Amino acid sequence: MSSKDTLSRVLLVKSWQEKAYDEIRPLLFQAFEDKNYSIRSAAIQVFGEIGNKNDVDKLFPLLKDPHYEVRYLTAETLGFFNNQQSISYLIDSLDDVDEVVRLNSADSLGKLKAKYAIPKLIEKLTDKDELVRGYAAEALGVIGDKNTVYALKKALLTEKRNASRVRILTALFKLGEESNLSLIIKMLNTKSYRVRCATANILTELSFDNNIDGLYGILEQKLKNEKTVAVKSTITRCLKELASDN
């Protein structure tokens, strides 16, 4: 099949999200088994937009798909639906060979408040990929079990990568260690523009009535001094979000 034919089919599948779910439900399930991974991926994205949590079991086999894109989209999509059946499958996917699959699995387990996943998420604090370590930490923070504070502090002592450190600090903040906010703010000055972008997004997420004005001022000042376009764009968007919340 030519790339043009594939694109036409992908666009057709994506157009289904404008239809009623019950109308295209059988077509989606059929697309999940298509030989072309692009079609499978498009169908997963449509399910994420209009699917029903009672049908998420149709996605479980796709976590073992031979193509990494299908697996990471599936891991992400399972986090959109509050179906506890997904948890054991996502825990297994924390050991996927692809790092994006692992971090999406961790993120989804956090969204599902999956306490059953805590031991495995703690194990992933030593994953070989820095973002997986960070997302595992954030998931622990979202789940909210204060018994994980010790494991997070231990991970922070040995973590050398700021992309992971900022997320460990965020998890600790969410678990009541509010003194870590100042350390998160300092991450706005790291050398990595990606970490600076992530930090701006995290600070926006951590804004509350008692600190929103202070965080707005910090980001506003950072915007004046920032030279990287990607970071400036991120901070500008974050400031708009904070202004709308205030």
Automatic annotation (TrEMBL):
What InterPro entries does the annotation carry? ARM-like, ARM-type_fold, HEAT, PBS_lyase_HEAT
Q: Which keywords does UniProt give here?
A: Repeat
In the UniProt record, does the keyword S-adenosyl-L-methionine occur?
Answer: no
Please provide an example of a Pfam family that matches this protein in its UniProt record. HEAT_2
For this protein, the record's Gene3D superfamilies field holds:
Leucine-rich Repeat Variant
> GO molecular-function annotation terms?
oxidoreductase activity
Q: What is this protein called?
A: HEAT repeat domain-containing protein
Query: From which organism does this entry originate?
Result: Methylovulum psychrotolerans
